Amino acid sequence: MNFDFSDEQKQLRDEARKFLAERCPPKAVRAVLDGKAPYDRELWQGLAEMGFLGVAIPENYGGAGAGHLELCVIAEEMGRSLAPVPFSSTVYLAAEALLLAGSEAQKQKWLPKIASGEAIGTLALFEGKGNPSPRAIRLAASGGTLSGVKMPVPDGAIADFAIVAARTGVSGRDTDISLFLTELKGEGVEVKSLSNIDPTRGQAEITLKNCRAEPLGRASEGWSILTQLLDRAAVLMAFEQVGGADRALEMGRDYALDRIAFGRPIGSFQAVKHMLADMYVSATLARSNSYYGAWALSTNSSELPEAAAAARISATQAFQHCAKNNIQVHGGMGFTWEFDCHMFYRRANATALGLGSLSYWEDALIDRMRKRNAA
Amino acid sequence: MNFDDTPQEAAFRAQARQWIDANAPKELEAELSQSSLGRIKLKNHDIVEVAKRWQKKKADAGWACLQWPKEYGGRGASPVERVIWQQEEGLYGKLTQPFQIGEGMCGPTVMAYGSEADKRRYLPKIASGEEIWCQLFSEPAGGSDVAGLRTRAEKRGGEWIINGQKIWTSGAHYSDYGILITRTDPTVPKHKGLTMFYISMKSSGVEVKPIKQANGLQEFNEVFFTDLRIPDSQRLGAVGDGWNVSLTTLMNERMSIGARLTTGFSEIFAFCNSLMTEDGPAIDDRATRERLANWAVRNSGLKYTSYRAVSALSKGERPGPENSIGKLVAGSMLQDIAAYAMDLQGAAGVLNDPDVAEAAGQFQQMLLSSPSMRIAGGTDEILRNIIAERVLGLPGDIRVDKDVPFNKIPTKGRG
Q: Model-level pTM?
């Protein structure tokens, strides 16, 4: 047993941290937050040049062919720096879907473009409120075309293609759902940007009208692929959340050391110390659960469904907890636009929902634990 | 990142499993599985006797105090092997409770500061469970503020004369020896005038009085010293260096990571999984699932945090104060779990007769015992201070008594 990243993986993390510190300072995040651009194009191109976009994409598809542990390491740094780029939608969702279920031709076409930064991809799953469920999917497929409305779609307004979950049957079973790949710049696609709590990662409404699409994976296996895809993305997103939680904790700690009130650094008051200690506890639990998820993901373990749910819940809670209390430590200044605290608070609460909210993953975790228990 | 056993680890696991399978006291399996929080009651056996038999058997076959050197009764095992052993020992690990302070704290202190003769004399008997050790640190006037202790040791010739009182000493009533921290110089600031010794609990001048606890049990004790005389050869470390020696003891407590922490999760999961309510199985209820999921990730988070620490240990890194999170998380979790399990039982949740109560009354027992988990071995508040100061680097609390000679520190609050 060795429950840690290797020295090479840690080196990669240091490299990514250094790169992002230079190329993605808070000022760069703010540019997107303030609406000056829909995402940071230069940073996206830089990430491609560093090989970070294709770190888990095999070499024969233009990637670095490293693996998912390396991707986890990069994800953590993306979360720390709040990188305002479509990384999670393109890499955790679109690329993973292609790797899981794409045809040889689909992989040949899209994966090299993802690795080089030429293509942005996403997953179009949700249709309004509610958590992932086959019953909630109404967008219909017929004769190679799709019609219906998806929202919210992460990074939908800037994506070149989407993996779309569509209804191909009415039996009431999971097999009614199939996946399709559709280009978003062609005919029959209408895209509308939606305002959301974290403008550094966009959300959109996508309306498809007899839009041409090709199947991704076997018909009627859509839901089963989606479930696996969400588990994989949950682990990767957990690392982003762990990175964000750690950074929010550090910001709170640093401010508590610098800010003087009543003649002392506020970090010398037990009420503040204990709040920060509790943030450290949740960040540590989340990191450990995420490591377990990373191991399960990288080895394709049968424990992945349970590990992914645990990592997702723990990391969501930790990021929300640390981001919220970071504002509290900062007091009034934490509630200004000028201080960065709210950017973490926004990201924490947006990432808590994107792949399904806490209640969805709590249900999933208990179902999966029960299944193992019965086995 | 690799969770799987290496071939050597797999071989070690197979060997451990085989030995446990052939030797464990299987007749106690059912009773052990019903006990929680280390409060084991056996119908027909004395728990300390049963525990001693299991420990001796393990020691004779080389399965006791695994991480200790062989010449002192251990196995010279790696940190990972120790974790594997704990996984395989499972339920029967509950029987190690009387020996944990000896293995985790007293033994390592003797190993660091005792003479070679002391090590050869005492350590193998700790490992075999033939002699049980306790730790005499806390005092009525020094709980969280351990360095405020007042038990006096005065040198007369080659001997030390000890007078004073300790409290919250687990297992003092069945212990043979103890490590004892005393004040040898009250004229210097409090951390500087302390000295560590080891003593026989059977000496004249040592009196053990059990404390009846809030849960009705008696596991802790008061220990009184009246003109206890011990030779200078029983001193551990230099005169006046007792605080540093005690830090060694406490650091070793942290090294014994992977030590069994009870969170109550497996108990509540099993309970909810089998409990039928008016509306169907408890585990199908939305509110119950939410709580279970939250406890599940805290439980697994602690488990993998200890694995990370073991991995760090294997690479020769020292585990730090970050391991303080274990007890902090487990303590309040246990208390919450007990209360929720009883809530699910409705009015009948008040009953705790094992023959009548749900789950043989284990949650009622857990509820009444759990407050101690948040206090013993460092209160939740002290643990948060440790994390804030030693992990996050926040300022220490203002200590008004730090540089004051001990005998000038006020001893009374109001009035």
A: 0.94
